[in-house]
């Protein structure tokens, strides 16, 4: 009887050293070393050894290891795979002449360079069955020679996986643990002057590639994952995940992932191969790289760079010789690039796309999203590439750049040998359909409100037969996630535990450092105070750290100079800011704030008193956040020469661009702001002065502000997921032509310290345009009691006046219900026709409200100082005469209806079919009874 030694992972290294390091994938792996002692019987008659099915199938081209992995034998591939004249051995796998089939009944090991076929001779077809795993050791890689083919066709349920021995053993997979996959073809490359006699030398192993056959086929690669490759050859070279060298258009490549490669993800040296549905994640150098005349195509490509671990999403070259042909000129479509932060260990910044060395390209529907510490997202470099950009050999259309540092120009540099300049922003924005603004993504998937879903180039297949029609920007349509089921590191296998913020030892450039006084702050872990003050004229990033806070001091911290010097104030997720009593932040026209918090790590802006030990946060202890944009405001008759003056600081705002981009504010909490300027003015929590729709605002809270929570002066900025708590005057206020949108807004008041939930104005002059006409949906407003605050204002719901228009849907106003003015809310819905334009808007149905509920003791009020319009609108009749409205009683808890509710749930209007900004809903109010979108990031008043 044979005795087996079973090893756990912790005891594998000795066994592997003796058996070529072979094992399969999974948790605890059972390895039989085959070296146990047995007592042989003395045979009485000679016997013939019986071969297993695997031995019969694979012995002709592979070697059986003494190791078994989880019940599967391990078979070793080494050297050249050549045709055979022996009889067919194919069962599950095997060989029949020039066909070699790697079955999934065993685990395969690459030992050194494994080469399929000779160079255009002794060709083979290497077929790999679905679900097969191929493990590579430290010096191993697989080469498909010219004239040979690989047929690696997995499925979503059973992808083919190339990985490292370490990862196969369940140990940690790391970049560079093996080589990669190399395909060598007979298609054109511009390093061969004579394509009929071309033998370009591949950078590893000196294998030949290139030729004159654009339709050459190197086989098929589908549902294949290549991970942890890219071993180091020398100080300047590592292997790529998959290398396509002179590979022709007859090759089929789709649903391929390269993950954590130590050099590029995919690289193309010439050729005409097209690829689609590609996932490139955390690769060290460039995710998608081409050179030497690649003229294929790439569509539906998702690229995610690693913080402090990657270089570029795309690095695109043709040849240092601008006259070399063919010129690289691929067709690109529907690519999403998530640019990371920081630099990799080679000192390279994380960047988006670099076009250089004379490349051309026809790019459509590209989405590049940068982070707060990303490098440039789109760069064009060198004279030959500038010429291509100027002559439409290099084009980019219907694309979206959402980056802190969006562009880098080509410049005249005699030392570098360049004599031509290119304004990359002007080149980009001057082409059809291109956008610069917020991408509005949930991870890599666009939200229903994202401009990416509707901004893509139509009829791509008519432009290039290799492309599919996909009329959206980026790799995803918002519904179909084609990465599911076969990829790694982007779905359930991702660790969702929030990363702890780092401990910082110094302050960022642009701030002044001081040590925290022991015992001064409520948070004893704070050891470093970084102060920001004055005029910020260069890009500044406030880095998040568990031991650091940022002090806003010295009055207005003004970012940029109005339309002359652009700067970006970037704030990392988890950063904590506090401000002194006279201080606030203002973002000039042409500049940006990129406050990109997260549910796990929101950004908090508060008062100094709120963070000092022994003090308490209260209304009006600092200023707030002011965003100044180039959007339309009816304060300016001439929109092309508009310099409206903001009410605090006289900063100019306004212009003619309602799509203007002032950056992003996501997962941001603003507390205890709104200092008093004079007897009639206080600062708002967040002021949007003519801010354009290119700005992304979501998941924001303003708490206990001394004046309004958020206020809009014109513009078209949109908001989603807004929590406004205990603000003193109006929670949400608009005037001067705001035409934006808002969905999912929850407003609560403190009794005796608030006025209205909504106060909506437009203009006093009959010719003032634009007219305020926001589109609002899914609001819940809980106004305070009908007692005066310190300014003499009482708790009320909604007041629409001063000629505003607008559309309101799915709104719930539930007032306090008592028997006296001190225990009940004031009027919950009021129209004020003092300025007759409001009555005109009612009569013209440009001011509407539907699918809403007013649940109050004093539901309606109409007021007017103009006797000619005193009874022009009966508010109750107007409200109840529109679709879906009622004065029904509702039951909610902390804003949330019960899951079984039938008054609010199932009675709302779905606006998503009318306007892509809005998410699909069928309920009234801010919540669906199941999901509380405040959880994890919002401040909850006690």
Automatic annotation (TrEMBL):
Organism (species)? Shewanella algicola
Say yes or no: keyword Signal present: yes
Which keywords accompany this UniProt record?
Signal
Is this entry keyworded NAD?
Answer: no
Lineage, top-rank taxon, reads Bacteria
**In which residue ranges is the amino acid composition biased (Low complexity)?**
37-50
Annotated coiled-coil segments of the chain? none
* UniProt-annotated stretches for the region Disordered: 34-54
What name does UniProt use for this protein?
A: Lipoprotein
Where does the signal peptide begin and end? 1-17
């Amino acid at each position: 009887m044979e005795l087996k030694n079973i090893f756990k992972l912790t005891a594998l290294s000795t066994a592997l050293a003796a058996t070529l390091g072979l094992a399969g994938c999974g948790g605890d792996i059972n390895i039989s070393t085959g070296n146990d002692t047995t007592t042989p019987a003395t045979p009485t008659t000679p016997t013939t050894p019986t071969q297993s099915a695997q031995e019969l199938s694979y012995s002709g081209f592979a070697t059986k290891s003494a190791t078994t992995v989880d019940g599967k034998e391990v078979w070793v591939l080494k050297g050249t795979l050549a045709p055979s004249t022996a009889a067919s051995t194919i069962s599950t796998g095997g060989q029949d002449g020039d066909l070699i089939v790697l079955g999934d009944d065993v685990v395969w090991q690459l030992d050194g360079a494994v080469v399929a076929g000779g160079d255009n001779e002794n060709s083979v077809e290497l077929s790999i069955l679905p679900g097969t795993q191929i493990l590579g050791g430290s010096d191993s890689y697989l080469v498909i020679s010219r004239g040979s083919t690989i047929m690696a066709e997995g499925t979503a349920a059973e992808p083919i996986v190339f990985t490292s021995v370490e990862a196969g053993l369940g140990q940690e997979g790391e970049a560079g643990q093996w080589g990669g996959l190399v395909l060598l073809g007979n298609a054109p490359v511009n390093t061969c002057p004579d394509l009929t006699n071309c033998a370009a030398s591949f950078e590893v192993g000196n294998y030949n590639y290139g030729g004159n056959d654009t339709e050459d086929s190197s086989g098929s690669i589908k549902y294949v994952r290549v991970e942890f490759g890219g071993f180091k050859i020398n100080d300047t070279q590592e292997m790529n995940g998959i290398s396509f060298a002179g590979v022709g258009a007859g090759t089929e490549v789709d649903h391929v992932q390269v993950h954590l490669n130590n050099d590029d993800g995919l690289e193309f040296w010439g050729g005409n191969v097209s690829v689609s549905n590609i996932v490139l994640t955390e690769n060290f150098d460039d995710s998608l790289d081409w050179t030497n005349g690649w003229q294929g195509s790439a569509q539906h490509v998702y690229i995610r760079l690693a913080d402090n671990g990657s270089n570029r999403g795309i690095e695109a070259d043709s040849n240092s010789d601008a006259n070399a042909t063919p010129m690289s000129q691929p067709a690109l479509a529907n690519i999403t690039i998530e640019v990371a932060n920081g630099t990799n260990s080679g000192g390279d910044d994380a960047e988006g796309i670099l076009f250089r060395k004379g490349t051309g390209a026809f790019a459509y529907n590209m989405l590049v999203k940068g982070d707060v510490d990303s490098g440039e997202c789109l760069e064009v470099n060198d004279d030959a590439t500038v010429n291509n950009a100027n002559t439409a050999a290099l084009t980019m259309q219907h694309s979206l750049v959402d980056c802190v540092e969006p562009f880098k120009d080509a410049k005249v540099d005699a030392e570098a040998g360049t004599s031509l300049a290119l304004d990359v922003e002007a080149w980009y924005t001057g082409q059809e359909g291109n956008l610069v603004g917020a991408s509005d993504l949930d991870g890599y998937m666009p939200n229903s409100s994202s401009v990416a879903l509707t901004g893509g180039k139509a009829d791509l297949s008519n432009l290039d037969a290799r492309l599919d029609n996909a009329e959206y920007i980026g790799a995803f349509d918002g519904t179909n996630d084609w990465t599911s089921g076969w990829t790694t590191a982007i779905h359930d296998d991702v660790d969702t535990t929030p990363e702890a913020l780092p401990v910082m030892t110094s302050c960022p450039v642009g701030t002044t450092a001081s040590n925290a006084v022991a015992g001064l702050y409520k948070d004893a872990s704070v050891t470093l105070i970084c102060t920001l003050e004055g005029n910020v004229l260069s890009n500044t990033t406030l880095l998040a750290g568990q031991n650091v806070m940022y002090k806003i001091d010295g009055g207005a911290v003004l970012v940029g100079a109005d339309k002359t010097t652009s700067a970006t104030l970037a704030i990392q997720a988890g950063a904590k800011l506090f401000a002194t009593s006279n201080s606030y932040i203002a973002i000039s026209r042409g500049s940006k704030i990129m406050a990109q918090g997260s549910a796990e790590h929101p950004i908090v802006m508060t008062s100094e008193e709120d963070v000092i030990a022994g003090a308490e946060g209260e209304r009006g202890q600092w200023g707030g956040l002011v965003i100044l944009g180039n959007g339309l405001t009816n304060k300016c008759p001439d929109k092309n020469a508009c310099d409206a003056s903001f009410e605090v600081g006289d900063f100019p705002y306004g212009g003619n661009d309602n799509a203007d981009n002032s950056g992003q504010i996501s997962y941001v909490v603003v507390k205890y702001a709104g200092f008093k300027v004079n007897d009639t003015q206080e600062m708002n929590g967040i002021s949007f002065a003519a801010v354009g729709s290119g700005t992304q605002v979501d998941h924001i809270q303003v708490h206990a502000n001394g004046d309004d929570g958020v206020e809009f002066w014109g513009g078209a900025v949109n908001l989603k997921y807004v929590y406004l708590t205990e603000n003193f005057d109006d929670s949400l206020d608009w005037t001067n032509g705001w035409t934006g949108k808002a969905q999912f807004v929850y407003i609560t008041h403190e009794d005796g310290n608030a006025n209205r939930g909504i106060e909506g104005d437009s203009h006093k002059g009959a010719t003032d345009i634009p007219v305020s006409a926001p589109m609002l949906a899914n609001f819940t407003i809980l106004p305070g009691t009908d007692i005066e605050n310190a300014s003499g204002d009482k708790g009320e719901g909604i007041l629409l006046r001063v000629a505003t228009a607008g559309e309101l849907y799915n709104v719930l106003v539930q007032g306090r219900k008592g028997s006296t003015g001190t225990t009940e809310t004031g009027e919950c819905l009021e129209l004020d026709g003092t300025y007759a334009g409001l009555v005109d808007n009612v009569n013209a149905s440009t001011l509407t409200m539907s699918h809403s509920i007013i649940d109050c003791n004093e539901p309606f009020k109409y007021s007017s100082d103009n006797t000619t319009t005193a009874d022009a609108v009966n508010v109750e009749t107007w409200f109840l005469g529109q679709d879906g409205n009622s004065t029904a009683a509702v039951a909610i808890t902390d804003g949330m209806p019960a899951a079984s509710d039938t008054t609010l749930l199932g009675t709302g209007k779905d606006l998503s079919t009318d306007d892509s900004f809005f998410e699909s809903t069928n309920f009234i109010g801010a919540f669906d009874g199941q999901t509380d979108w405040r959880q994890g990031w919002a401040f909850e008043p006690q």
